[in-house]
């Protein structure tokens, strides 16, 4: 992240300025290394594949998610890589992760979201809203950065203050259950993209 971008973020989001400064500092401590022709970033004693810094995390889970997500649905935080067939939802004025007014409550077959929830300080409010938009039996599919990836922790390289917290299945599974969701599947570790997924079904 360049200094100019951090300044622009600080103007738009003053609460991110300190983590942004930390991000610039910690980037100096990330070492680019090549092993057997493969590029990694070494940070705090761990090697992370270069592809972790290129975006499009959803490409690593989309085929698996298709087994659960069918019918009418939305992709929250889609950016330029929306889930196939889903209506993409990004942070655009009045419609975002906290505001989904054009969708009736109980109208969606699924809500898919990849590497978005960690950006939301009020993630509980967001999840309650997403669940409310699902039909009974509707699917919530979350794909999230794993807490073991130090590069993605709040204030760390590549994310700065953009990541507000580090989601874990230990926190999310009981929260979703308390919101009337049946947990269909989840990871208790990380995949090749240092990420994990949780699949929930609305019970009523």
Structure overview:
- The chain has a single domain (56-202), classed as Vaccinia Virus protein VP39 (Rossmann fold), CATH 3.40.50.
- Helices cover 23% and strands 27% of the residues.
- It contains 5 helices and 9 strands; from the N terminus they run H-H-E-E-E-H-E-E-E-H-E-H-E-E.
- A 6-stranded mixed beta sheet has the order 5-4-6-7-9-8.
- Helix 1 (3-12) runs antiparallel to helix 2.
- The longest helix has 11 residues, at 17-27.
- Mean pLDDT is 88; it is low at 13-27.
Question: What attributes characterize this protein structure?
Answer:
204 residues, alpha/beta, Rossmann fold, 5 helices
Beta-strand percent range: 25-35%
Task: Specify the overall morphology.
Answer: elongated
Tell me the CATH architecture: 3-Layer(aba) Sandwich
Mean pLDDT rating = 88
SSE arrangement, N to C: HHEEEHEEEHEHEE
Sheet with the most strands? 6 strands, mixed
Q: Which homologous superfamily in CATH is the superfamily?
A: Vaccinia Virus protein VP39
What is the number of domains?
1
The spatial strand order of the largest sheet comes to 5-4-6-7-9-8
Briefly note the structural class of the backbone. alpha/beta
- The CATH class designation is Alpha Beta
Helix run count: 5
List the uncertain runs.
13-27
Number of strands: 9
In short:
The longest helix has 11 residues, at 17-27. This protein is of the alpha/beta class.
Explain the layout of strands and helices:
Layout: H1 3-12, H2 17-27, E1 31-35, E2 38-43, E3 46-49, H3 62-65, E4 73-76, E5 87-89, E6 108-114, H4 123-133, E7 134-145, H5 169-178, E8 181-186, E9 195-202
Parallel strand pairs: 4-5, 4-6, 6-7
Antiparallel strand pairs: 1-2, 2-3, 7-9, 8-9
Helix pairs in contact: 1-2
């Amino acid at each position: 992240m360049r200094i100019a971008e951090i300044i622009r973020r600080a103007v738009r989001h003053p609460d991110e300025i300190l983590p942004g400064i930390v991000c610039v500092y910690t980037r100096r401590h990330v070492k680019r290394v090549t092993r057997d022709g493969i590029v990694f970033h070494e940070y705090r004693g761990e090697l992370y594949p270069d592809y972790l810094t290129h975006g499009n995390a959803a490409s690593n889970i989309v085929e698996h998610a298709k087994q659960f997500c069918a019918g009418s649905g939305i992709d929250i935080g889609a950016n330029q890589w929306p889930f196939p067939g889903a209506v993409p939802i990004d942070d655009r004025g009045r419609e975002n992760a906290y505001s989904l007014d054009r969708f009736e409550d109980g109208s969606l077959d699924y809500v898919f979201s990849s590497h978005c929830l960690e950006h939301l300080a009020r993630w509980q409010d967001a999840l309650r809203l997403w669940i409310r938009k699902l039909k009974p039996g509707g699917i919530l599919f979350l794909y999230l950065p794993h807490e073991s990836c130090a590069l993605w922790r709040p204030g760390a390289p590549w994310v700065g203050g953009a990541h507000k917290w580090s989601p874990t299945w230990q926190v999310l599974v009981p929260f979703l259950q308390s919101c009337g969701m049946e947990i269909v599947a989840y990871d208790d570790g990380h995949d090749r993209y240092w990420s994990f997924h949780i699949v929930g079904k609305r019970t009523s």
